[in-house]
């Protein structure tokens, strides 16, 4: 019986498929070669934690000068930035009252000296008369007491005269050491109180870089930490220093601690009040650090590819990153020492993929 056209077509199609199957390249059925990667073994090592602060330059020794007494300010010769020498007159108070008190003390001293001279002469007469039997013991003792009283009054008058001299001297304010004026106070004509700041002088014996540091960094930083300080407007101007003082109490507003770094041979460009940046590194103990190239992202979180040497496969794992820079990532959680992570080729991997290790790095 002759074949129908449909059967003829089916036979032709089957024959075509058989021929194609026979002609297929056997290479197409070969599984893909393992992808080459580079790896590193995770280790815990001592890590240095970098610190960066912004602060200011201050004098290592800055004093506030003030009058010991109150009064009306006659003159204030201090100007910001002026250099002063030891003993230089900086300000004066009106001294009429103190001058009058000095003259009164001088007069009281003269009177006391006269009374003492009179009492001494009377004592000497009574002493002579007593020896000759022409006076009584009671008169002699009275003369003795009068001389002692006159001597005491003279001593008191001398002390009052010295105090009056001091009061006159207190109307003049002089620098006790060479330095530079960093702050000025009231102007001439104002009434000032004892102890009120008239000016601040930075003595010429050192510079500090002062920073406001959070409490957690103060706890982490070791004592005598070395700091590199640079000007913010010219980072090429630098100086080295060490922490010499940490405030015992936090600032009540900012809750930070004032840290003073004593600078060694600071350049002249680091003027008082200049803004600086301090950089330091402190040992944070053993931590896991991996190359930055090992870090990828999975499930919207940082991740790494972990290599299984027994199966030559990789699997992705999310990690917690403590900090990172362009070269290294510090991992807080997610990896253990001894594990192997992929450092090159991470972008072309998938879960469970077989890989071929080209080399390992440290």
UniProtKB/TrEMBL annotation:
Residues 102-167 form a coiled coil. Residues 290-347 form the Multidrug resistance protein MdtA-like C-terminal permuted SH3 domain. Keywords: Coiled coil, Signal. Gene3D superfamilies: 2.40.30.170, 2.40.420.20, 2.40.50.100, Helix hairpin bin. One of its GO terms (molecular function) is efflux transmembrane transporter activity. Residues 63-202 form the CzcB-like barrel-sandwich hybrid domain. InterPro entries: Beta-barrel_RND_2, BSH_CzcB-like, MdtA-like_C, RND_pump_MFP. One of its GO terms (cellular component) is efflux pump complex. Residues 211-277 form the CusB-like beta-barrel domain. Pfam families: Beta-barrel_RND_2 (PF25954), BSH_CzcB (PF25973), RND-MFP_C (PF25967). PROSITE patterns: PROKAR_LIPOPROTEIN (PS51257). Residues 1-20 form the signal peptide. Belongs to the membrane fusion protein (MFP) (TC 8.A.1) family. This is RND family efflux transporter, MFP subunit. The lineage of its organism: Bacteria, Pseudomonadati, Pseudomonadota, Alphaproteobacteria, Hyphomicrobiales.
């Amino acid at each position: 019986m002759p074949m129908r056209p449909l059967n003829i077509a089916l036979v032709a199609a089957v024959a075509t498929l058989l021929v194609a199957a026979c002609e297929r390249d056997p290479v197409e059925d070969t599984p893909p070669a393992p992808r080459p990667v580079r790896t590193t073994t995770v280790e815990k090592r001592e890590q240095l934690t970098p610190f960066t602060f912004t602060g200011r330059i201050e004098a290592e020794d800055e004093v506030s000068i003030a009058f010991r007494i109150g009064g009306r300010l006659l003159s204030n010769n201090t100007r910001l930035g002026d250099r002063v020498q030891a003993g230089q007159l900086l300000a004066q108070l009106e001294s009429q009252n103190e001058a009058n008190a000095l003259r009164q003390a001088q007069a009281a001293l003269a009177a006391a000296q006269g009374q003492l001279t009179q009492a001494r002469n009377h004592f000497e007469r009574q002493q002579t008369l007593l020896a000759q039997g022409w006076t009584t013991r009671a008169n002699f003792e009275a003369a003795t007491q009068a001389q002692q009283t006159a001597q005491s009054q003279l001593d008191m008058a001398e002390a009052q005269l010295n105090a009056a001299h001091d009061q006159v001297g207190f109307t003049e304010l002089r620098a006790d050491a060479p330095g530079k004026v960093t702050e000025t106070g009231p102007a001439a004509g104002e009434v000032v109180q004892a102890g009120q700041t008239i000016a601040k002088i930075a003595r010429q014996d050192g510079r500090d870089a002062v920073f406001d540091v959070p409490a957690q960094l103060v706890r982490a930083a070791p004592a005598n930490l070395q700091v590199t300080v640079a000007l913010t407007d010219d980072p090429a101007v630098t100086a080295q220093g060490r922490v010499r003082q940490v405030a015992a109490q936090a600032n009540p507003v900012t809750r930070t601690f004032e840290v003073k770094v004593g600078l060694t041979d600071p350049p002249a460009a680091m003027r008082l009040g200049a803004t600086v940046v301090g950089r330091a590194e402190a040992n944070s103990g053993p931590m896991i650090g991996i190359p930055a190239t090992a870090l990828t992202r999975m499930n919207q979180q940082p991740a790494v590819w972990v290599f299984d040497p027994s199966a030559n496969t990789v699997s992705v794992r999310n990690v917690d990153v403590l900090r990172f820079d362009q070269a290294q990532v510090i991992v807080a959680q997610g990896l253990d020492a001894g594990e192997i992570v992929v450092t090159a080729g991470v972008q072309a991997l998938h879960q469970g993929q077989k890989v071929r290790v080209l080399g390992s790095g440290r």
